[in-house]
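Entry 0007
Protein: Phosphoesterase
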Amino acid sequence: MDGSQIYCVHDRGVEGGIMMKLIVFSDSHRRNSSDMLVIIDEEKPDAVLHLGDVVDDADDIRSVYPDLKVYNVRGNNDYGWRAQDVQDNLIVCAGQVKLFLTHGHLYGVRRNTKALAAAARRHDCQMALYGHTHEAEIDRDGGILIANPGSISLPYVAAPPSYLRLVIEETDIQPEIIYLDQKR
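Output (structure tokens):
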């Protein structure tokens, strides 16, 4: 293992078709905190995943929603004492699905997602989630589903801020990119 830690969203099994909703944010950069909180209020997810830049934003979510599971990784703009205990990669189990979380900068995602898909495959994950590029996308590399929620605050392309909604039931993963202008 490369130091990735494994966490489970729910300790219970998925008998009876338990469905989970996860919300994925990335690249918030200490902006749009209020939008993230509104999204959490509206979506009522089982857990929130934050893919880095900036860890303080994930901590803010934890402070407002102390009973909500929040998992986050460190991004390229996360450094210093606030980020020293935050991992570069996490594996989150949601039902029977394993998700590989990373910011993406350590896997060269600006070029392509081949190294990211290979890392997810090495850890027996069905999906890889990353940020860093500030561009939302859903793709597939072989059997690995790959998704980037885009930036909740600073999209690089001519697109509105975005996040990712994941609905997971047993081994079925339904990803959907949500643009903030769709919600208004």
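Curator remark: Residues 20-91+108-167+176-182 form a domain with the Purple Acid Phosphatase; chain A, domain 2 fold (CATH 3.60.21.10). The longest strand covers residues 162-169.
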